[in-house]
Amino acid sequence: MKARIAVLGGDGIGPEVVAEGLRCLRAVAKSFGHEIAMTELPFGGVAIDSHGDPLPSETLQGCLQADAVLLGAIGGPKWSAPNAKVRPEQGLLKLRKELGVYANLRPVKVQPALVNAATLKPEILEGVDLVFVRELTGGIYFGEKRRDAHSATDVCTYTVPEIERITRVAARLAQQRRRKLTSIDKSNVLETSRLWREVCERVMRAEFPDVTLEHILVDAAAMHLIRRPRDFDVLVTENMFGDILTDEASMLAGSLGLSPSASLGEDKRGVYEPIHGSAPDIAGKGIANPVGTILSVAMLLRHSLGLNAEAEALESAVTRAIENGARTPDIAAQGTRAFSTREVGDAVLAQLSAAP
Ligand code: IPM
Ligand code: MG
Which CATH architecture has domain 1-103+258-356? Predict the structure, then answer.
């Protein structure tokens, strides 16, 4: 097949991890006979520097014309002064909104080889396999913002159709998995959460009677995620709760650097990015973990290009590379030499070409 990918490396470690993702994408395309054109475009803080805009119109156009977007990370101290007029994050939010990618899938699967790399006890982590479906284009991220000398306001709004569609995405995913959906809200306090719970309940009863639904308050969810993570299958939640809980959940797998994500809308086009940030403290050192980005490439192959065998080949190459010790410092076993970003990429490529 032929496909066009827009590549947005962004800031900090973004370009380093994306480079490894692209090498893997090229290798998969080559061995399965696909023609994938990749266009690199300015985005984030570097685009503020070059264009005065974190999402220049050429970048947005390039993304709209592509079959999928692969993104690294954005942001950094250079662009985050409290009085900054324009911020890299605004570009990311605008990109998500303009592409209509309202459903952010963030899977967390504990690799047996890494069960001792995590901060939690192995017996809690063995067999953890869950997916967050984070609502991505609504809620407090996109509400009106106001500021005067004495106060600041961020408005949180959710509409019924926004809740219906995200519930459906999560429920369909649950149908392909263990048929369990956990909806997370704060309905004891927030009106948006009371609406969320009502709408979710109604959609599930009418359309997905085969999926078991439970509701958990967000504070309790934060606790249960580290107490009994194996019990969860698909979890659906609003934008900000999802942002917070997915950083927490990524630590079940051992490191924030391992977690991929796919942001999807009504058509096949999606935005694929590791869930970590630009990590300015380690940028340029060649030690960032590229696995979150490489696994995001696998999600891109699966969800936007419909290439399931290719996605699985890449995922299993990552698993084998990790089993063979390809670990950056964030997950390196004690007393072993840590791999560089590039060496982890090399190890995955070696496994790809070794595959039958
Ligand atoms: C994420 C990030 C972003 C978010 C930031 C960079 C705006 O934390 O993708 O999780 O909050 O959505
Ligand atoms: Mg986040």
Answer: 3-Layer(aba) Sandwich (3.40)
